[in-house]
TrEMBL record:
Protein name: LPS O-antigen chain length determinant protein, WzzB/FepE family
Transmembrane segments: 37-56, 337-358
Organism expressing this protein natively: Chitinophaga jiangningensis
Organism ancestry: Bacteria, Pseudomonadati, Bacteroidota, Chitinophagia, Chitinophagales
Record's keyword terms, sorted: Membrane, Transmembrane, Transmembrane helix
Presence of the UniProt keyword Membrane in the record: yes
């Protein structure tokens, strides 16, 4: 328990501290007021820079694409899975993956894999050999002029068909440029988020100088992600279907051979008086019956696997797709004047106060 004298001393220190703060605050205001003409010049200069920036800043185009995704919780084939497992067939399909669960999808859409696939996609439809979106992006930023200093970079084209695998040096340069594009897009172009954490809607935003690029890149990023995810989810089920289909085709071919062999044996040994002559036909018929039974089971499991694969496929539906013309984003002249003045005045005020503070320290 503190003594009364100590309590009064503590309160006095607090009052003195508050008083000092107020004194310093008013002193700073007075100091800035004395330098008001410097601040006025800084505000005018900042406004001028902001105005110039609003004139030279290029218009940017915003493309927003929203989609919703629903994953199946289970295939509903539990009753059949046990039966199928007796034949060595797994109907569980692709177990629920965590790739698109929670906020993982937000990072997945920004991975180098998806962004690079979207960049290398053709600019016009699915026409091979045409310009890619990466070429369009480079063109819209005039990067070719910067790269012209290096003869090896100016003629590089970005496409899935020509990856310069036959020229290791060109391939290395191309891959390095793709990394530069990826980093720039991740920093300045692409944004992925959820408007509401409680809902399953995901919005992909693309902001760039080129209207065509913004629209197509947002669409391609989502398209590539959906394609990759769908293949991943159904990969195991698709493998089961392929194995069962191959078995069904093989058994069907053997069954046809046995049917033909049984008919040939019956024609060659038509004498009923000799029973030994019927053995070949009976063996062929027995093999045919066994193959028919096997074929029926394989076909049944094949159909169940196809159902499992359809259940594994995720339901991803695009809701809002960007349509031309896109929303334009440009700094207005009035906004450039206002923000430039505020930023210019604030920076100079902070600089003046910092100089005053250091002078007071050295003076003490």
């Amino acid at each position: 328990m503190q003594a009364p004298g100590q309590s009064q001393s503590s309160a006095s220190e607090k009052q003195i501290s508050l008083k000092d703060i107020l004194i310093q605050l008013f002193a700073a205001i007075g100091f800035l007021w004395a330098k008001k003409w410097i601040l006025v010049i800084a505000v005018i200069f900042g406004s001028a820079l902001g105005f110039v920036y609003s004139l030279v800043a290029k218009t940017k185009y915003v493309a927003n694409l929203s989609f919703v995704m629903e994953e199946t919780k289970g295939s509903g084939l539990g009753a059949y899975a046990g039966i199928a497992s007796q034949f060595g067939i797994d109907l569980s399909g692709g177990a629920s993956s965590g790739l698109f669960s929670g906020d993982n999808i937000l990072e997945f859409l920004k991975t180098n894999l998806i962004v690079e696939r979207a960049l290398l996609s053709p600019r016009t439809g699915n026409l091979k050999g045409t310009e890619s979106l990466a070429d369009l992006y480079v063109e819209s930023h005039d990067w070719k002029k910067q790269w012209s200093k290096d003869p090896g970079l100016s003629d590089i084209k970005f496409s899935r068909e020509n990856d310069y695998s036959s020229d290791p040096r060109k391939k290395l340069q191309r891959d390095s440029l793709l990394k530069v594009l990826y980093q720039d897009i991740l920093k300045n172009v692409l944004a992925v988020g959820k408007p509401d954490k409680k809902l399953g809607f995901i919005v992909v935003t693309c902001i760039s100088r080129n209207e065509e690029f913004s629209q197509k890149f947002a669409t391609r990023v989502v398209g590539e992600a959906i394609e990759f995810y769908s293949k991943m989810k159904t990969k195991k089920s698709a493998a089961n279907v392929a194995v069962l289909q191959a078995k069904a085709d093989s058994i069907a071919a053997l069954m046809n051979k046995k049917t033909y062999a049984a008919a040939v044996e019956a024609d060659l040994n038509a004498n009923p008086a000799r029973r030994v002559t019927l053995v070949g036909a009976e063996l062929a018929s027995r093999d045919k019956l066994m193959l028919q039974t096997m074929y029926g089971e394989v076909v049944k499991n094949l159909e169940l696997s196809k159902i499992a694969m359809s259940q594994d496929a995720p339901l991803i539906q695009e809701v809002d797709v960007p349509q031309l013309p896109l929303e334009k984003v440009k700094v207005r002249k009035s906004m450039g004047l206002l923000l430039g003045g505020i930023i210019g005045g604030s920076l100079v005020a902070v600089l003046l106060l910092a100089i005053r503070f250091y002078k007071s320290i050295f003076a003490d």
